[in-house]
């Protein structure tokens, strides 16, 4: 039976598949978290199995680590790996300067640590994630469980003086319980609608006691691979301004991990 991917999954898969080609044998690579990153991990697993690709991976979440191992990828800790050659990860929003909102999957703390410990961070995303101004997607802020209500109140107070359009701050839930991150913390999602000065917001949020890390990635990403619903992929490099277009033709194929590149 042919696998019918929705346009959004086609876009995510196409971006992930192009980015997987950036991984070379011998590299140490950070693997992101989320549905787009899962396509990446599966694509890399196929390259390990069929093409003899050999690399060591650092996973940004327990979910990604489990999937990577299932796919035959060697997973090591960040401390074992040390500095990484490359990290490839998804995003919830990205702007023209490749500033990002991340953490929709609740993994932005480890994701930021891993991306910052890499020579290069490449974002993989469907075209719908590109925005002129960040903030329509709620900004995740990881906080320690102790006194989280007080931390939330401090965040709300701090937002009064900043260039944002909304100030809603909601504890992320998992059913009836607060969501718990891999580091045992909670997440407060900030419904800001528009973030006028992401750099300033990222700095002041992290000054608040109880805040561990916010989901704004400023000056961290180096390139973005943007997938489209028809299999087109655009890769943009921030430093060089270089752009490359590719097209994948796997729509309706029996096994998307065998056929594909055009
Ligand atoms: C997880 C993340 C993800 O990269 C982000 O939420 C995008 O996810 P998806 O690829 O499923 O759209 O930051 O913490």
Describe what this molecule looks like in 3D.
The protein is built from seven helices and 17 strands. With 262 residues, the chain is α/β, with parallel strands linked by helices. It has two domains: 7-130 and 219-247, 3-Layer(aba) Sandwich (Rossmann fold); 139-214, 2-Layer Sandwich (Alpha-Beta Plaits). An eight-stranded mixed β-sheet has the order 3-2-1-4-7-15-16-17, with helices on both faces. Strands 9-12-8-13 form a four-stranded antiparallel β-sheet, with helices on one face. Ribulose-5-phosphate binds at residues 32-37, 89-92, 102-108, 111.
How would you summarize the topology of this molecule?
Layout: H1 7-20, E1 28-31, H2 35-51, E2 56-59, H3 62-70, E3 74-75, H4 78-81, E4 86-89, E5 93-94, E6 100-101, H5 108-116, E7 121-126, E8 139-143, H6 148-159, E9 168-171, E10 173-174, E11 177-178, E12 186-191, H7 198-205, E13 211-214, E14 216-217, E15 223-227, E16 232-237, E17 243-247
Parallel strand pairs: 1-2, 1-4, 2-3, 4-7, 7-15
Antiparallel strand pairs: 5-6, 6-14, 8-12, 8-13, 9-12, 10-11, 15-16, 16-17
Bound molecules: ribulose-5-phosphate.
The site of ribulose-5-phosphate has 18 residues, from helix 2 and helix 5.
Task: Using brief descriptors, characterize the structure shown.
single chain, 2 domains, binds ribulose-5-phosphate, 25% strand, 262 residues, four-stranded antiparallel β-sheet, Rossmann fold, 7 helices, 17 strands, alpha/beta, Alpha-Beta Plaits, disordered C terminus
Number of helices: 7
Average pLDDT across residues? 95
Major sheet details: 8 strands, mixed
Shape descriptor: globular
């Amino acid at each position: 039976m042919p696998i019918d991917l929705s346009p959004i999954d086609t876009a995510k898969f196409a971006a992930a598949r192009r980015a997987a080609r950036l991984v070379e044998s011998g590299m140490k690579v950070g693997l992101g978290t989320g549905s787009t990153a899962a396509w990446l991990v599966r694509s890399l697993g196929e390259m390990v199995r069929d093409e003899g690709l050999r690399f060591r991976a650092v996973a940004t979440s327990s979910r990604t680590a489990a999937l990577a191992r299932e796919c035959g990828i060697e997973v090591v800790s960040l401390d074992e790996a040390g500095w990484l050659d490359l990290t490839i990860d998804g995003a919830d929003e990205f702007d023209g300067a490749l500033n990002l909102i991340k953490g929709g999957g609740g993994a932005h703390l480890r994701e930021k640590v891993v991306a910052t410990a890499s020579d290069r961070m490449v974002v993989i995303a469907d075209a719908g994630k590109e925005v002129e101004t960040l903030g329509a997607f709620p900004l995740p802020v990881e906080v320690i469980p102790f006194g989280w209500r007080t931390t939330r109140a401090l965040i709300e107070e701090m937002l009064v003086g900043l260039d944002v359009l909304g100030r809603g701050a909601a504890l992320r839930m998992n059913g009836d319980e607060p969501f718990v991150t891999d580091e045992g913390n909670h997440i407060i999602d900030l419904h800001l609608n528009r973030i006028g000065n992401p750099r300033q917001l990222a700095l002041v949020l992290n000054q608040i006691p109880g805040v561990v890390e916010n989901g704004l990635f400023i000056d961290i990403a180096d390139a973005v691979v943007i997938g489209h619903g028809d299999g087109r992929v655009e890769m943009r490099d921030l430093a060089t301004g270089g752009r490359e277009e590719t097209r994948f033709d796997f729509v309706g194929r029996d096994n998307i991990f065998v056929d594909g590149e055009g």
